[in-house]
Amino acid sequence: PSSLPGDPAAGAAIKATDRAHVFHPWAAQGRIDPLAVAGAEGSYFWDHDGNRYLDFSSGLVFTNIGYQHPKVVAAIQEQAGRLATFAPGFAVEARAEAARLIAERTPGDLDKIFFTNGGAEAVENAVRLARLHTGRTKVLSAYRSYHGATTTAIHLTGDPRRWPSDQGAAGVVHFWAPYLYRSPFHATSEEQECERALAHLEDTIVFEGPGTIAAIVLETVPGTAGIMVPPPGYLPGVRALCDRYGIVLVLDEVMAGFGRTGRWFAAEHFDVVPDLLTFAKGVNSGYVPLGGVAISAEIAAGFEDRPYPGGLTYSGHPLACAAAVATITAMAEEGVVEHAARIGADVIGPGLRELAARHPSVGEVRGLGMFWALELVRDRDTREPLVPYNAAGEAAAPMAAFAAACRKAGLWPFVNMNRTHVVPPCTITEEEAKEGLAALDAALSVADTYTTGG
Ligand code: PLP
Q: What is the DSSP code string of 326-372?
């Protein structure tokens, strides 16, 4: 580790300036101790103190192509030298080309791309498009979901982290989506879960009044809330309900899109084409902020003669779009999506199941591609979570100990409530994946000590 480029004194100075002046998101400012990052490459990053970490979190699940991909870095540099910025109302080569490459990969006729600066803003605009298209206002979204932290997006988010002051937003109605391990419908099979979830959604639509509902917003595979891959029939069933009641189907692929599930878009696994699809993160692996909404031909046609009321100063920024062109091109040339599917199916999935067989703290393994969750429990029979929802302080200690053990073993984990998500870059090599599994093995031994048997 001492050969890593870093400097403990520089690290300490960066940290001191950070603590003096940076107000961090989602954090109690006095309780955090952010790591001073010195550099990153591929699947790894390192700090100024000689510690290197295999990143099983892909940042916030966005570095699908890994850190410092030379082609993406070069494309940003080249674009900066040529045309570093330009206002959204003009035809700019990088923007046009990014839209073309995205439209080529989105399912069905989602061929018009509205660019944003990130995921939440994409969700805001998808809801606005749906409301304008239908003339209706209500939006349905699922509990156990995450759609972003701006006003509409946080109201749609069905997660116990919603702000304590959140009184609920007029027009947003939550429903339960499939999650067999903790079934809201007390189902005992995937088929039953699927059938009951669809019946519950239809009841919700009918009792809310179909004529008042603009959109159903769903993550194709819910990510932050726990990577609950839906049963095969669920999304086709939701599509059919949307068609029956004239409701716009918005699939949020901010996290699941661009290779994460082993396909360009997760909707492909279920043969479903939404009316609007939101994306961000993997579109350019977050090298420059970018997101967007892919819009169906029918919805786009409604804005041929009336203006769309939305857009920000930096929408479709040339640097971000150049990064997207380079990312998508490199992913295609290097077969990154197929690689993610293969490593997920052949190495990570089987490796996690093998860990689950040996560690009593693992209640369930689920996922696909580079998108996996381990649900940690105190007791496999009762499925009592290793820490309660929204645990803080002492109550959160078992997960904190697990995360610390991961870091000690050189692995940077994604930890949320009683889960760890295994979401490495889609470019991770087989050897790196195995190294990460070995680190998880060591950390799960720590989690095991908190089980009823441990
Ligand atoms: N939608 C989904 C499914 C997400 O996972 C996220 C972020 O994690 C968002 C929206 C919000 O994206 P952003 O943080 O870029 O605003």
A: HHHHHHHHTTHHHHHHHHIIIIIHHHHHHHHHH-TTEEEEEEETTEE
